[in-house]
């Protein structure tokens, strides 16, 4: 699995890099067929009082690419929110891939209404 962390208008410090890596361990723990992760951290200076921190991720899985973004006033809060969203998306994809809840109709037992009434 390849992990790329980059910053836009932001220098990615070792502390931020370590924080993102530890948070991504949760996603990798739930679903280990991850091919590539690209994280982009951005700081938008809109006004003097309004600094907006943005975190976005592209997660490539076999057969699907998951894109998630999150905005917050604090970069660490944006990363936390991003990981929560990403984890939900990965779990949703995992349940779709496994598909344990769905069985083909032709494999179900053959119950006709007459047999059900006789029981």
UniProtKB/TrEMBL annotation:
Top-level taxonomic group: Bacteria
Matching SUPFAM superfamilies, A to Z?
Answer: Ribosome binding protein Y (YfiA homologue) (SSF69754)
Note the Pfam families from the entry: Ribosomal_S30AE (PF02482)
Q: Which GO terms describe its cellular component?
A: cytosolic small ribosomal subunit
InterPro entries (UniProt xref) = HPF/YfiA_ribosome-assoc, RHF-like, RHF/RaiA
Keyword Nucleotide-binding among record annotations: no
Membrane-spanning ranges? none
Q: Write one Gene Ontology MF term.
A: ribosomal small subunit binding
Q: Which UniProt keywords apply?
A: Translation regulation
One GO term (biological process): negative regulation of translational elongation
Q: Which family does it belong to?
A: Belongs to the HPF/YfiA ribosome-associated protein family. Short HPF subfamily.
Q: How does it assemble?
A: Associates exclusively with 100S ribosomes, which are dimers of 70S ribosomes.
- Name the PANTHER family on file: 30S RIBOSOMAL PROTEIN (PTHR33231)
Q: What is this protein called?
A: Ribosome hibernation promoting factor
Species source reads Janthinobacterium psychrotolerans
């Amino acid at each position: 699995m390849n992990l790329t962390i980059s910053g836009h208008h932001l220098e990615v410090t070792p502390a931020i890099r370590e924080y993102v890596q530890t948070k991504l361990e949760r996603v990798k723990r739930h679903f280990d067929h991850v091919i590539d992760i690209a994280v982009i951290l951005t700081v938008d200076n809109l006004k003097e009082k309004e600094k907006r921190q943005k975190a976005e991720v592209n997660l490539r899985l076999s057969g699907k690419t998951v894109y998630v973004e999150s905005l917050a006033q604090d970069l660490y809060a944006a990363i936390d929110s991003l990981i929560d969203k990403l984890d939900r998306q990965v779990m949703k994809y995992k349940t779709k891939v496994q598909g344990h809840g769905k069985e083909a109709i032709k494999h179900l037992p053959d119950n006709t209404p007459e047999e059900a009434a006789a029981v």
